Amino acid sequence: MNLGDIASTFKLIKSNPLSVIGIAIVATFIVVGIISPYIVPYPDDAWGYTYNLDLRLLPPSINHLFGTDEMGRDLFSRVLLGTRFSLIIAIGVVGIALAIGILMGLVAGYMGGSIAMVLMRLTDMFLAFPPLLLAIAFAATLGRGLVNVIIALALSWWPWYARLVYIQVNSIKNLPFVDAARVIGLSTTKIMFRHILPNSLTPIIIQSALDMGSAILEAAGLSFLGIGVSPPTPEWGLLISQGWALINRAWWISLFPGIAIVITVVGFNLLADTFQELLDPRLRSTMIMRGV
Amino acid sequence: MELLNVLKLKMYFPLKRGIFGKVIGYVKAVDNVTFYINSNEVYSLVGESGSGKSTVARCILKLYEPTDGRILFEDKDITYIKGKELLEYRRKIQAVFQNPYLSLNPRMRVIDIVAEPLLEHLDIDRNEAYKIALEILEKVGLSSDIAKRFPSGLSGGQAQRVAIARAIALKPKLIILDEPTSALDVSLQAQILNLLEDLSNEYKLSYLLISHDLSVVRYISDRVGVMYLGKLVEEGYTESLFENPLHPYTQALISSVPEPDPQRGKLGKRISLPGEPPSAINPPLGCRLHPRCPYAMDICRKEEPPVIEVENGHSVACWLYKSIE
Amino acid sequence: MADIILDINDLHINYYTPEGIVRAVRGVSLNLCKGESLCIVGESGSGKSTIGLAIIRALPPNALIVKGEIYYNGMDILKLSEEEMTRNIRGKEISIVFQDPVAMFNPLFTIGEILSDVILTHLGLKDKRKVYEYGIKMLKLVELPDPERIYNSYPHELSGGMLQRAAIAIAISANPKVLIADEPTTMLDVTIQAQILDLLKKLKKEFSLSMIFITHNLGVAAEICDRIAVMYAGSLFEEGYIEDILMNPIHPYTKKLLECIPRASKRSLKLKYIPGSLPDLKTSILGCPFAPRCDFAMDICEKQLPSISEVSYKHRVSCHLSLAKR
């Protein structure tokens, strides 16, 4: 990547409205996630430490943009703060899963032999389960809580990355520049981390963008089922479940967190699409022809 | 002085089937190959695909461990060395591969690519290494503004020069060139070949050239070895081999090269070998060429021919020349 | 005077890439006469393969023919619809063989399945038995040993040479008038290459095929072609009968190219090379693209693209030096 590339990359992104939308959503998500504790209109409500029965179940109004919940807390503040928790979950889950998965895939892919067999069979065992089911099993075992949610999801996800990396490494390790590195006399570790790993990351970048959105979705699912974060954490899934019973009377309690999830996940999906188009030379050409 | 000695080299690759990887046969890629290279000499191994020439190179580079045979470098047996000894050996033998875009790490800058071997073997810091690397880049005809680029930003000729720069960085004694110009345009090929020649004079290098391109081989080599299906079938000084090819395969090979001569239809008068080379898994008994050889005799089908020296330094493995012994 | 079967007129083709617009073919005019083989020779970036793909309208999605016509038997095939092209021209009138035989074959189908597909589509033979027999006949024509076995084999079971023969069989199965061969022997061993060149010569004679043979190897061109066209950076530099070009090359590039080639047949003295490198095809080049590297470049060479002049019978050159000499 040099300057010429960056400039043309910007041009390409600008030419596609969907890419721009995706990037805008994700950027907003990150910024709000970071600053939300400082900008929520009702901080105490947001964190959930208060309740005000006089203000229960009020529909959206100027004072309460998203209305109030059954404890009288301002929903807008809670949804806004929920962004931070979703951000923590997204980064935590994907980060841990990447770390474990990349290491496993790299070692198995390059070393081959019995190490690869053992590691890949382990990966296969995990992959045999539908990921959500596995996450539910882990979460139920670990109990509620933000950290447990992150661990449960990360544990159910690292095998996907391990497999992606394994496949990439397998095809790269036979390329001449790896032979050249061996001929120079580099140690196995240096070859793995300096030569093979940087060239194996492309599919992972795309996948992890997608997975950020999925992590948020699945965490929300766990919370909705009652095995995710514990109340009064304003996590979006938990907010939805809290409004579920009241859906007929106070539709706003479940709706707004739901919309937040949808927009965020769509944003990450569009971002993943953009990455894919940029990184795949053939698709890149399609992007250019659009402008011709 | 013989710089490199390859003695009865064998490289058999096992063929595995089934979940447990049962061995059902061997690909006899290199089967009992013996040759030597002098210091300050260009030796070419010629052959078509499946001849085993690249495998020989990889054994010498210690990318494979040979099934049998020995490799001596500067009179030292390096066949099974490891660790520090191996590292020392690697300083003296380097390689340039066929496709420069594949032999350079696409995510490393040119300067880092050339500095890497220096940092690995010499006790110097990064700045020192960069300084030396820039000098080497200049030696191969590249200006310093190339240093910051990535391989994808280089032309084919430039990229191959970077690969050459990396190979000479440690001032090795022997460089293995695996089809170094096959991926380049003809007008560039000459540049690279001339550069290689200049470098070998300056650094007193030897080259082992692996090639299927006979015209390049004739231009640059002192001695040539011809391989077919894992065997060395003929060997000699370049002019001697090309002017007087002894082995039917060598004759066929040389006469099959198309040339831009106004007197066309030359290929029609060539010595042709019908069919294709068989697989190296179950090579023919006796002389491996006998199913395709226009001169095949009974003995060729039964016994492997011995190596016979026909004239000074020019030897051939073929029953046709038995009477000369 | 032999009829012209393919007439390329002032062709301009661009590729649209992230780094800019690559002007791959800049105003090339060529023609192919019935029964002759024309070699388009050039190094990388010359545009030779692009022209081959353009004739058969198989350019990648980021390429555009921005100007020019290609007349086949008097009809501009660039104006045909994709459907008309597929139904009537591709495979039926004009066929192509590519450099990498492996890439040409779908690994999931046997050779026979692919062959019979072409036969059914273009020849309208309905009877299964007849299709099979015709297919075997085609495989025999390209001198494949044991054609029945090959018919039922998958591409990965065959060697490069055999696959290329199969590819040729498929290409000629519908009896095309024109065969385009894009570097068909570049990936093959030299002894196999000789066999394939022999085969192509034989087929050309037997079926009165007109051939466009694209290659970077002047030796191969000398072997198989009647006429040769030398291209550089999207422009046509010299064109003529192969004997004329080899004995009397006019363009400085052609001359230099011949001096760069080492020979297996005789000892070469120090090889010449062409200093410098290709111009950037993303810029519009004023004048002759070879000017920066040409020993004989004059002022006018950098300003104006030389027009094509006929030096002797059918020997045409695009060069200011040649124009100046006359």
Automatic annotation (TrEMBL), chain A:
It comes from the Archaea. Residues 83-272 form the ABC transmembrane type-1 domain. The keyword Membrane applies. This is ABC transporter permease. Belongs to the binding-protein-dependent transport system permease family. Keywords: Cell membrane, Membrane, Transmembrane, Transmembrane helix, Transport. Its main location: membrane. It comes from Ignisphaera aggregans. It is found in: Cell membrane. Pfam families: BPD_transp_1 (PF00528), OppC_N (PF12911). InterPro entries: BP-dependent_transpt_permease, MetI-like, MetI-like_sf, OppC_N. GO terms for biological process: transmembrane transport.
UniProtKB/TrEMBL annotation, chain B:
It comes from Ignisphaera aggregans. Transmembrane segments: none annotated. Residues 1-254 form the ABC transporter domain. One of its GO terms (biological process) is peptide transport. Keywords: ATP-binding, Nucleotide-binding, Transport. The keyword Amino-acid biosynthesis does not apply. CDD domains: ABC_NikE_OppD_transporters (cd03257). PROSITE patterns: ABC_TRANSPORTER_1 (PS00211), ABC_TRANSPORTER_2 (PS50893). This is ABC transporter ATP-binding protein. One of its GO terms (molecular function) is ATP binding. Residues 258-278 are annotated as: Disordered. InterPro entries: AAA+_ATPase, ABC_transp_ATP-bind, ABC_transporter-like_ATP-bd, ABC_transporter-like_CS, Oligopep_ABC_C, P-loop_NTPase. Belongs to the ABC transporter superfamily.
